[in-house]
Amino acid sequence: MDKLNPITDTTEIYSIDRDDILLIGGRYYKVTGHAHEMRFGMDDPKFWVKWAIDQETGEKKLIKLSFFENFETRIGPISIMCFRSPEKEAKILDQVRNHPHFMQGIWHKDEKDNIIRILDVISGPNFFNYIASFNLSYEDYFRRILPVILKQILKVLDALRFLHLNGFRHGDIRNDHIIVERDSGNYVWIDFDYDYQTTENPFGLDLFGIGNILIYAVGMGLHTLHMIKKDRKKYGNLYDDLDGADFSIIHQTRFINLKKIYPIIPKPLNDVLMHFSRGASIYYEVMEEIIEDVSRCIYLLEE
């Protein structure tokens, strides 16, 4: 296709392919491919997200077409229905315009009222890969790197607090949904088109998502029941001393009582992580509580 016959109805997302021309909001975009996402070691294509070139400026963009799905997740005994909402993501893009800790972009409707988001590309690794890139002892990481990382995490926690105060939820907080911007070093939230329904705390799933990010950062990676069982050289006899309360309330085999692995971790910092465990009796209710506790822990690390 060319500019004489551009696509103006994006309903059939799977039929839109490389070299197609989209006409969105009065501008032409040439599709160069589909986005992919690495999940659990697998390359997962996202056919509703297209790499494209703005034909006027030559800028590379990510174009998210309207795509709907839903699934159920659980926090302990609580069932939560999650679903994609292009409209919600479009509203958040308006709300966070020029905010340094959120992805930036614009949105338009096509001729069939499909909501299309045109996103600026953020250069840099996601947080999952960023932490995995460190090749040093845990003590070096803990003393030199972790305090800096926690300070950056505080900034994205405050950004999330801003979102919550304005009535929005991120909806899909994961380690690969923060980009560490290469030029500025900013941590930037991406992909907030998921929403969810729950009769409990309306921000609860976001808060537990933050728990996963903190656990990953403090642990310099993930630690699972399988890893602890198989790698006696790294974990010693920890497998013989495990308790159900040592594990995540969401990810049943994810070990989060990290002080058992790394005694150097201060108890207050480990206590923050244990709020997200199966053994917790008190959970965080609002983002301010996490921000306050993490701030205190940074102070302890810098003493």
Written overview of the protein:
- The strands form three sheets. The chain has a six-stranded antiparallel beta sheet with strand order 1-2-3-4-8-7, with helices on one face. The chain has a three-stranded antiparallel beta sheet with strand order 5-6-11.
- 33% of the residues are buried.
- It contains eight helices and eleven strands.
- It has two domains: 20-120, Phosphorylase Kinase, domain 1, CATH 3.30.200; 127-302, Transferase(Phosphotransferase) domain 1 (Transferase(Phosphotransferase), domain 1).
- α3 (138-165) runs antiparallel to α8 (287-302).
- It is of the alpha+beta class and 303 residues long.
- β3 and β4 (60-64) form a beta hairpin.
- It is elongated.
- The chain has helices spanning 86-95, 127-132, 138-165, 204-218, 225-230, 232-235, 267-274, 287-302; strands at 21-24, 27-39, 42-54, 60-64, 70-75, 78-84, 105-109, 115-120, 178-180, 187-189, 194-197.
- The chain starts with 20 loop residues before the first strand and ends with a helix.
Helix fraction bin: 25-40%
Number of domains: 2
Tell me the fraction of residues in β-strands, as a range. Answer: 15-25%
Mean pLDDT: 94
Domain Protein kinase: 29-303
Organism: Dethiosulfatarculus sandiegensis
Transmembrane segments: 207-225
InterPro entries: Kinase-like_dom_sf (IPR011009), Prot_kinase_dom (IPR000719)
Features:
single chain; about 300 residues; alpha+beta; Phosphorylase Kinase, domain 1; Transferase(Phosphotransferase), domain 1; 2 domains; 6-stranded antiparallel sheet; 3-stranded antiparallel sheet; 8 helices; 11 strands; Kinase-like_dom_sf; ATP binding
